[in-house]
Amino acid sequence: MENNDRNQPSAPFFADTHCHVIEGRDEYETDAGSVLRRAGKAGVARMLLAGSNIPSSAMAVATAEKYGDLGVFAAVGVHPHDASTVPSCSVEGMGIPRDLSELAGSPRVAAIGETGLDYHYDHSPRDQQKTSFRAHIRWSLESGLPLVVHGRESYDDIIRIFREEGASGTTGVIHCFSGTKADADYFLEAGYYLSFAGPLTFAGNGALRDLFHELPSGRILLETDSPYLAPVPFRGKKNEPALVKIVYQTAAEVRGVSLDEIARTVSANASRLFRWGDPYSGEEAER
């Protein structure tokens, strides 16, 4: 990535480490570009677009390549909701399909995912979710790309599969973390980062804020999960990366630091994980 005055963000700069602002995706089909540009004007200088199946992963890569000057990168993978729609990632298949794995060859791809387990909706049978998740862990181990993990009402099984598959041999992020201190302790020990989104701002999530306050600063990330989970006072509306500043403001308040300090902390953490360069230090992406 070029490193010149035109592309240097003004401080504080924000990283949205998980969003779905993808051209061709229903929620942003006609305005993804304007949403990404609006984020850039709001100080968001790094964004990770997470794929959820083969078509959306391909669109995420294409969007990241098109808007690379805005600091946009992609993650490619199959969401647990979609595990049953990709035969090679289900119990009938033989691992990651070639047309998905080939997407990781793009220099704009910074991670594998999102993958994981979702027992709240069970849109795919749990055995297929587990098989897909295992395949993604192995892909991460083989490729050296970090893993983006989705978990909902499923952390016990995620931890069990982590142990069985040796997931501590790679690294990654538990996105939109909502687990217990014991869950957090396990993932931190395994070498993973914990990311927090709009729910950190919700009034009823005092326990989540208490946990966030105690986490080591070198392992925290922040995100929007756009178009979902808009922070207060936009809760219930369509989310977008420009609103990640609100998550950062809440995070700074909870940890008792300045907005600039939390922005610099998350920037350094995200750059270390995704190897996409830290604008604060002028580092270029390791692609």
Quick overview of this protein structure:
The protein is α/β, with parallel strands linked by helices. Helices cover 36% and strands 15% of the residues.
Account of the protein in words:
With 287 residues, the chain is an alpha/beta fold. The protein has one domain (11-274): TIM Barrel. 36% of the residues lie in helices and 15% in strands. The chain contains 9 helices and 8 strands. An 8-stranded parallel beta sheet has the order 1-2-3-4-5-6-7-8. Helix 8 crosses helix 9 (259-274). The protein is globular, with a radius of gyration of 17 Å. The termini are close together. Mean pLDDT is 94; it is low at 1-6.
Features:
disordered N terminus, TIM Barrel, single chain, 9 helices, eight-stranded parallel β-sheet, globular, 287 residues, alpha/beta
